[in-house]
Amino acid sequence: MKRLEEICIEFNIDENELKSFVREEWLIPIEDECLLFDEEDLARIELIKDLRDELDVNDEGISIILNLLDQIHALKAQIRNSRKF
What is the pLDDT of residues 29-80, one digit of tens each? Predict the structure, then answer.
């Protein structure tokens, strides 16, 4: 798990940008007070940066893409769980 400051250095983003990811609910930190993030959040930050920087996707588009990815992961988990029974 990493703190906000570590992530800003690792991904070369400022604190306000990372905090905006949280405000937009693109990221949900494990710990709200000190903004502590796990490996899944780190992968999501990388995806957000790629969408913005490499593919020039706007914020609305990022919200849609992340929502669809979350739905896909939830459906895959449902399928896996239904196969266990």
Answer: 988 778 899 999 999 999 999 999 999 999 999 999 999 999 999 999 999 8
Q: CB neighbours of 18 closer than 8 A, spacing ≥ 6?
A: 4, 7, 8, 11, 27, 35, 45
Total tally of structural domains belonging to the chain: 1
Q: What is the CATH number of the domain that holds 37?
A: 1.10.1660.10
3-state secondary structure of 13: coil
Return the structure tokens found at 53: 């920087």
Give the domain extent around 19.
2-83
* Residue where the block lists tokens 């604190």: 15
pTM, two decimals, is: 0.85
